[in-house]
């Protein structure tokens, strides 16, 4: 058995060319079937090696080939949907009476 926190410490890598995609941020589970359906992977695109935009890639569970000690290997078959990461509102600085 493996925990979500243990999975989040692993790099997500394409099995074909060894390119690092990013790190696992979440998983999607079909509760009716009791199975993992997708991995949610955070990526960072960089311009000039400095500025970056965070995005999330949804990888279908069927594309996961192997879970190792340090990496999760996925196949590079097709395009994965990407979603911009939305910054969470910090409500700690506002006080309503």
TrEMBL record:
One Pfam family, short name: PRC
Start and end of every PRC-barrel domain? Answer: 13-75
What NCBIfam families does this protein's entry cite? spore_YlmC_YmxH
Q: What is this protein called?
A: YlmC/YmxH family sporulation protein
């Amino acid at each position: 058995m493996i925990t979500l926190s243990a999975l989040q410490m692993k790099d997500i890598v394409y099995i074909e060319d060894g390119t690092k995609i990013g790190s696992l941020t979440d998983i999607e589970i079909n509760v009716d079937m009791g199975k993992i359906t997708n991995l949610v992977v955070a990526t960072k695109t960089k311009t000039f090696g400095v500025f970056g935009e965070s995005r999330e890639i949804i990888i279908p569970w069927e594309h996961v080939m192997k879970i190792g000690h340090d990496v999760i290997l996925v196949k590079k078959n097709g395009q994965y949907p990407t979603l911009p990461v939305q910054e969470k509102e910090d409500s700690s600085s506002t006080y309503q009476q």
